[in-house]
Amino acid sequence: MPCYAITEKAGRFVAGQTNTGVGSVLTLTEKQAEHEVRLGSLRPLDTPVAKAGGAETQNAPTSKGKRVAKADAKTMDINVSGEDNASAGA
């Protein structure tokens, strides 16, 4: 079973167990830890370590949960007026 560390965001109880302090390790199933990880009360410790530069690093999961892609304003081509971007400059 995976191991999880208690964070400073945790309350008095974490995943139904008494909080024994920041950094304490709990061994829980993914289902037991799912909600607490989402809240930030726990962080997973058993994350796979990928070698730098390998294909595994591009798809390796992070310990912060789901990550949302952020748009880069420099590369975005947005035309608010509703006109076609190709014909707008012609």
3D architecture notes:
Residues 54-58 have low confidence and may be disordered. This protein has 90 residues and is of the alpha+beta class. Strands 4-1-5 form a 3-stranded antiparallel β-sheet. The protein contains 3 helices and 5 strands; from the N terminus they run ββββαβαα. The protein has a domain at 3-48. It starts with a strand and ends with a helix.
Mind sketching the topology for me?
Layout: E1 3-6, E2 13-14, E3 17-18, E4 25-27, H1 30-39, E5 42-44, H2 55-59, H3 85-88
Antiparallel strand pairs: 1-4, 1-5, 2-3
Would you summarize the structure shown here?
With about 90 residues, the chain is an alpha+beta fold.
List keywords for this structure.
three-stranded antiparallel beta sheet, two-stranded antiparallel sheet, 3 helices, alpha+beta
One letter per element, helices H and strands E, the order comes to: EEEEHEHH
- Residue fraction in strands: 15-25%
Whole-angstrom Rg? 21 Å
Tell me, rounded to a whole number, the average pLDDT: 73
In the sheet with the most strands, the strands line up as 4-1-5
Largest sheet: 3 strands, antiparallel
Low-confidence runs: 54-58
Look at the helices and sheets and give the structural class. alpha+beta
The percent range for helix content is 10-25%
* Distance between the ends: 61 Å
Number of helices: 3
Please state the overall shape, judged from the principal axes of the Cα atoms. globular
